[in-house]
Amino acid sequence: MTRALFLFAQIAVVVGAAWALTHRWPGRIAIDWQGWRIDMSVGLLVLVIAILIVLVVIVARFWGAIRRAPGQFFESRRMSRRQRGYKALTQGMVAVAAGDVQEARRAARRADALLDEPPLTMLLSAQAAQLGGEETAARRYFEAMLDHPDTAFLGVRGLLMQAIKAGDKAEALRLAERAYRLRPETEWVVDQLFELQVESALWSDANETIATAIRRKTLPAADARRRRAAVLVEQSRVAEAEGDLDTALSRAREAHDLDPGLVPATLALARLFKAKDRVGRAVRLIEEAWARGPTPELGAAYGALIEETDPLVRVKRFQRLFSFRPDHRESHIALAEASLAARLWGEARKHLDAAGGNAPTAGVCRLMAELEELENGDMAASRQWLARATTAMPDEAWVCNSCGAVAGSWTALCGNCNEFGSLAWQPPPRAMRLAAPKPAPSASDRSQRKPSLPSRQGERKPPPTP
Asked: Edge to edge, what strands does the sheet with 397-400 contain?
């Protein structure tokens, strides 16, 4: 419509110009050609020329429209197919999300027929096959996606998820490494590769992965440092077991610098300092860690660093350790244990009373039982404390935040659920998770079995009742 109005406006301008020429410059023009004579005014000639020009333009445009018509027809048809194909693709994705297998398959077939872009439809086809439990067909689609640069990453991801689901850790690790090469700054790729590396005890590779993630800021800084510290502790343990104390010390120091609050890193570093005859540095390290948060393992490590065997001298050394956190229960317990060994009954009772308060833990109850037996020979009071220990709150231990299992010592991976970095020093649940069910004992086994009490990690058990 706009073009037609513009054309009429042009004609009006030409007619107006012809009229102006006729009135301003009157005169006539005669043309002799092939025996023909044309005689007209100047204005009429201009008008005729203008009309001829307009006719030529109209004919040219009409001819161009005729020539373009087939192409426009096919382009319109192609766009229509493309729109219907994308609609089918969208409907298929919605069907996959809704779990509608049949609709997902139908949509995948429609999209594949309408769209001449296999990379777009292969993902939908693979997901539809997975939804229908056809893992072999899905694998073929994912492998075909590897041939297209635009979908290679999606293909690797699909194959990786299949390998993890099938429990093929070697294949999963290989695919995770390929995904990492394609997208090294994708967070879930880094997480997956790191998880597979630590599950395979590839501590050096895991350290390199997490160190690169820290440099590229792929993961949150605090979380990445915590992970790397745990990996370095395991690297240190491996090097120590192989007799490479220099590497073990280096890795332990790196771990401690990254996460000073990681007690296993502190313990490993202190132990290696002692092996290198740097006992003073090891002692200061334990004292610094004790000031941050006392634990029985730190107390046991501190006692192992004291070379003096005189019980009274050891009490004085533990009094120094106590001074760093006199408000903490573990400080009172550590000093009470040293006092018990030195037969300082009053000092031991004072600190056990301070540690237990109105609700002593199971470990404090057992120490009180030992004190009653050693100081007064009061077996009745000792048995009462031991009975109380069975119902008292359990002492803190390494507990998995993922599965709730209690570990005897810290490791980077939970021994029960294989979760990385899940062990935390905290009170265990009342009902502890068992590793595996045991067969019921026979009558003879029950008659020969003696009752046993859980003991606090690192403490002495009370002597047997005479």
From this structure: 406-407, 397-400, 423-426
How many alpha carbons lie under 13 Å from residue 372 in its C-beta half-sphere? 17
pLDDT of the residue at 450: 35
* Domain boundaries of the chain, sorted by first residue: 2-75, 395-429
Inter-residue contact 334 to 299 (CB < 8 Å)? yes
Distance of alpha carbon 457 from alpha carbon 411, whole angstroms: 16
DSSP H or E stretch at residue 423: strand 423-426
CB 322 within 8 A of CB 331: yes
- Assess contact for 463 and 373: CB atoms under 8 A: yes
Is there a contact between 322 and 335 (Cβ–Cβ < 8 Å)? Answer: yes
**What residue type is assigned to position 389 of the chain?**
A
User: How many other CB atoms are there within 10 angstroms of residue 235's CB atom?
Assistant: 22
Integer Cα distance of 305 and 322 in angstroms: 16
User: pLDDT of 70-111, one tens digit each?
Assistant: 766 666 666 666 666 656 656 655 665 556 666 656 766 666
DSSP state of 441: P
Tokens of 455: 């003991």
Mean pLDDT calculated for residue range 6-30: 66
> Do 136 and 162 form a contact (C-beta atoms < 8 A)?
no
The reported pLDDT for the residue numbered 323 is 96
User: By CB neighbour count within 10 A (0-12 exposed, 13-18 middle, 19+ buried), where does 108 fall?
Assistant: buried
Q: Tokens 């199971």 — which residue?
A: 362
Entry pTM: 0.69
Calculate the dihedral angle through the C-alpha atoms of 255, 256, 261, 263, rounding to the nearest 10 degrees. 80
